[in-house]
From TrEMBL:
This is DoxX family protein. The keyword Nucleus does not apply. The chain crosses the membrane at residues 12-31, 51-79. Keywords: Membrane, Transmembrane, Transmembrane helix. It is found in: Membrane. InterPro entries: DoxX (IPR032808). It is a multi-pass membrane protein. It holds the Pfam family DoxX_2.
Amino acid sequence: MTLQSALWAGRIMSAFVVIALVADGTIQLFAPAQIASMLQETGFAMDLTRVVGPIILACAILYAIPATAVLGAILVTGFLGGAICAHVRIGELGSPPEIISLLLGAMTWGGLYLRAPRVRAILPLIR
């Protein structure tokens, strides 16, 4: 894989993550009734959507901006880890939301690795 194709692959992966996070954050803020059953299953109150939505959107913005992408990736990973933990807690090991969270987390760091030379400098897997 050339450096140019790696850069574009990273941008595409990162864009997918940002789109997924923005969609989730927007639903949390503007259509919480759509996710009410999932919140109830995982034991979260509906009122938390007004807090969680902006947090998700802030993480997406930080991840999308190159200068703050590493901080954004750390925050996104923490958020997705919490989502995975919530599903493990209620006995949904391997559930679709858990797998999606795991894949988004992997794409977050994979996309950042491919698009950010400073991350590749820390962990030089490709040349």
